[in-house]
Amino acid sequence: MRSQFLYQLLQVHRLKYNQSICSGINASALEKEIGPEQFPVNEHYFGLVNFGNTCYCNSVLQALYFCRPFREKVLAYKNQPRKKENLLTCLADLFHNIATQKKKVGVIPPKKFITRLRKENELFDNYMQQDAHEFLNYLLNTIADILHEEKKQEKQNGQLHNGSINDDNGNSNANDMPEPTWVHEMFQGTLTNETRCLNCETVSSKDEDFLDLSVDVEQNTSITHCLRGFSNTETLCSECKYYCEVCCSKQEAQKRMKVKKLPMILALHLKRFKYMDQLHRYTKLSYRVVFPLELRLFNTSGDATNPERMYDLVAVVVHCGSGPNRGHYIAIVKSHDFWLLFDDDIVEKIDAQAIEEFYGLTSDISKNSESGYILFYQSRD
Ligand SMILES: [Zn+2]
């Protein structure tokens, strides 16, 4: 599930004014713009200080903070008995810090979280730009691992107290098949990989879980088109024939991948960084890919559990720049009835129409662009 590569974006650069002065003015302007009556009760809009190319992290954290079910679970974790520091306790402290601020707007340094992240994973232990999708994947998997480990510990402690540690088989089974955590309940969906043998017509299917979906992008398309492409029927022939269990031989087959279980929060990663063999490096595809505010999936399998699920766009991590080795990340999020743009320590209110500016470019791939990179869709039910 984790992608192999982590390319390192060198040096991001955007001109920054004096941070404290700028964010002070910006913060009060934001409060004024929203207005005292319209400002949502118990909501806080806090920018995050950049600790040297940490916008990949800041943008993902803001997007996740505005995925309300995720925020609520993280805050609930904060209220549990104190635990030894890990990435999740640091995230919970950060979210709690934002949620309990006296002021409605401002800036917070996510220092403890960044320090912990750099300590835990050497890939992030530097001042270079990182891939926001790689970070999201790492974060969700790490949180799931922490929760799973805690559940296991609790179970073992419970068994010790009850004096019934005779269930060795049960334990090893539990290790093989980890119980779903709230990260799974929120982000996990299932794909089904259907293969139809063209000789005997037998259809075999294999399920595969995902926490986010990575889709290829094409010029002047929509996210629905990209998802359809993802599920297009592929013919396995010549060297790529498929071994059919019924025919007991290699046969031509048709393969397609469909969504069988739709997640509560659908995280869609647009594969905008493509390795160019001729250039020996990754290049950015700034293609214009329209992503609607409301989404319904059409690439679901016949036996899907909830194919009608309607999704609303709640957050977008945007990559700005011409290529993976120079760039910057920002997040646009929906909060109550309006949209906000988080650019590290700067927070601005934007019009819903302004989201179109983040679809990408209709022309040339090499030009500078600010384009949607990870989309977060939250289900209505
Ligand atoms: Zn067959």
TrEMBL record:
Keywords of the record, alphabetical order, are: Hydrolase, Metal-binding, Protease, Thiol protease, Ubl conjugation pathway, Zinc
Top-level division of the source organism's lineage: Eukaryota
Q: Which Pfam families match?
A: UCH
Q: Name one GO cellular component term.
A: nucleus
Listed GO biological process terms? protein deubiquitination; proteolysis
Entry EC no(s): 3.4.19.12
Family, per entry: Belongs to the peptidase C19 family. USP12/USP46 subfamily.
Give the protein's recorded name: Ubiquitin carboxyl-terminal hydrolase
